[in-house]
Amino acid sequence: MRQDFRQQQVIVVGAGSTGLALCRYFQQRGAGVVLSDARRQEEISGLSELAAAGISFDCGQHSTELFLQADLVVLSPGVPETIAAVVAARQAGIPVLGEIEIAWRELTAPLIAITGTNGKSTTTSVIGAIFQQWGMRTFVGGNLGLPLIEATGRDDWDWVIAELSSFQLETIEQFRPRYALLLNITEDHLDRYPDMASYIAAKARIFENLQPDDVAILNAEDPLVAQLAPSINACQVWFSSARLLEQGMGYEAGQMVWRWQGCEERFTAKELRLRGLHNVENVMAALIPALLEGCPPQLAWSAACAFAGLDHRMVAVRQLDGVWWFNDSKGTNVGSVVKSLAGLEAPVTLIAGGKDKGGDYAPLAELVLERVAHLLLIGEASGRIAEALGSLTDTRFAATLQEAVTLARQLTPSGGAVLLSPGCSSFDMFKNYGERGEIFTQAVLALPEKECCR
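Below the sequence we write its predicted structure tokens.
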């Protein structure tokens, strides 16, 4: 149902792509809109169209006085609730919501929401591919690609599928998806949260408003996910990559086995284009909503098998002189690096580092000992990573990613692999993980082949 914001003053905080989309959304629904961002106006692109539409700007600051005059404050994903002007608005009784809550209130199609520390982009994309191949008019977005607010304003979607980060879940109120998926929980964003318990609590909010006729899809092999189960007021459907389940999606001898209400379907994992046990888990989770909704099993499986993977997630960039180069720039936490390294054989040259997120690098130790011949470190986190892992293998520092690529070329023998899997965010050196991955790819593709000895 289309919301009416006429006669209301709305402040949108954060001038990223979602913030700009929110401004357009509120302006089209009659609100007076102010876009607030800590950056100076000249540092932000895309504002001229908003200015022409009558939207005002509060740039270079967040003016508390302005916030206290608002009827509603809406946070873009990633904007912390601890900003002084936001705190003041909330204390004054002014509603503070996030984009996900605003969008959900207007959606007419059922929503599938996916969260987790790792794998959520792949799982979201596979679900979207399945529903689209099934002939459903399907919006796919959220933390992945298009902001969820872009799904509003039309009533012809059959399904809406959204990846959600912990940041987005912080600011929900009534948000209630039809299906809520929690894939896994490992350390991440501890530069944002005071402790692991706070991070888990943010993830768990995806289940907060579920009712018994909704469905929670859960990883049976993740102990932190399992601990949340007693508090989830919904039908629970589990998946496991380690064993068969009486009900749900299990795994045995290279086959995913779906058992539900007396029916059984088997899917052979080696038919997938995606590789690795972590992707088996992602596909398992992705199949469940479609199967429960009545999608023909072989149609769902063919769509999953056709999915080739995401940009910057274990992409084989090139084989050069017997060495494979992999772009895993999307590996922004330690758990993700663990999964990527586990899929490679020694000797690996690992390029890691970036903006530290406060997590523990120790879970990488065993794999570094077993498989990493050379550890090349970049960015702000290089010192912390070296302290945790540097004694386990040959460890070196590079001032730039291009320098790390050149050094990796010199060090990695034929038969080895070079893996960019930073385990950190990119914001110390790059705009985002995509730019980091593109720069790595360009540097690798620019490497000349070695001249043969004559």
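The two ends are 74 Å apart (CA to CA).
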